[in-house]
Amino acid sequence: MASMAVQLLGFFLGLLGLVGTVVSTLLPHWRSTAYVGSNIITATAYMKGLWMECVWHSTGIYQCELYRSLLALPRDLQAARALMVLSCITSVLASVVSAMGMKCTRFARGSLIKSPLAMSGGICFLCAGLLCLVTVSWTTNDVIMEFYDPFLPSGMKYEIGLAVYLGYASACLSLSGGLVLCWSSRGARSQSPPHMQRNQPSSPPPCFYNIYTPAPLYKPPEALKDNHAPSLCSLSSSGYRLNNYV
Fold first, then answer.
1. CA–CA separation, 123 and 134 (whole Å)
2. Annotated Gene Ontology MF terms (predicted)?
């Protein structure tokens, strides 16, 4: 029962990580305008994401425009797109596999593949969390390096957006869920199923030859060793010779 509760905890942590990863992938708030120097008070704010670029005006108007060309994007943005999409796909796969491998589901109940399925789901959650963590860490490093670049104008500097922080939280949730699932599945795998324990004999049956010794070989008595039936061609019958009566 405790193992089932631990598996449910790991599954819900991974599911929260999946939702956060998808939301952070779609949000445009990866980079926001840095208010430094003469840009302390501005009428517009710029935000850049993986799929679009948005502008917020002080009048309340919010405009977004999708990136039209994929090949015209910088290589770091293309890599970030690919890694986040892979993280989302891996999280979905992990959710399906771990749901089939948990003890509270009916799929393959009583079979030996339940624990390996749950462990596979946990490993997929770990991979998804690592992919998301690498992407947001890479973006954070680029933003910080550009912010402290003295040759870059103040109007072109950006700060870390909300989607990056959400990506960090999602990666931590996915990693935590994967670790919990792997740990619970490893503990359940060491215990054999109850029906396997009932059917298994307590001790192996004794060998037949250890109880019953083999019978000795048959040896005819010495008196009957040379006792052969008389033939018709012989001159004796029943041990008497004919010359005794002639």
1. 17
2. structural molecule activity
Largest CA distance in the chain: 159
Domain annotation covers residue 119:
yes
Banded model confidence at residue 245, pLDDT cuts 50, 70, 90? very low
Burial class (CB in 10 A: 0-12, 13-18, 19+), 73: middle
Range with the largest mean pLDDT of 34-43, 120-129, 150-159, 187-196: 120-129
Select from 243, 220, 239, 221 the least CA-distant residue to 230. Answer: 239
CATH number of the domain where residue 152 is located: 1.20.140.150
Please count the residues of the chain: 246
The angle formed by the CA atoms of residues 115, 119 and 125, to the nearest 5 degrees, is: 150
Buried b (16+ CB within 10 A) or exposed e, 83-117: bbeebbebbebbbebbbbbbbeeeeeeeeeebbeb
95-113 residue pLDDT tens: 999 988 888 877 777 777 8
Residue 38 DSSP code: G
Q: Which residues face 160 on adjacent strands?
A: 31
Domain-located, residue 203: no
Computed from CA positions of residues 177, 179, 184, 186, in that sequence, does the dihedral angle turn out positive or negative?
positive
Q: Check: CB of residue 53 under 8 Å from CB of residue 209.
A: no
For residue 126, is it within any domain?
A: yes
User: Structural domain of residue 156, as residue ranges?
Assistant: 1-27+73-190
Whether the model pTM is above 0.70: yes
The single-letter code of the amino acid at 190 is S
- Whether residue 80 contacts residue 50, with contact meaning beta carbons closer than 8 Å, is answered with yes
User: Is 4 part of any domain?
Assistant: yes
Q: How many domains does the chain have?
A: 1
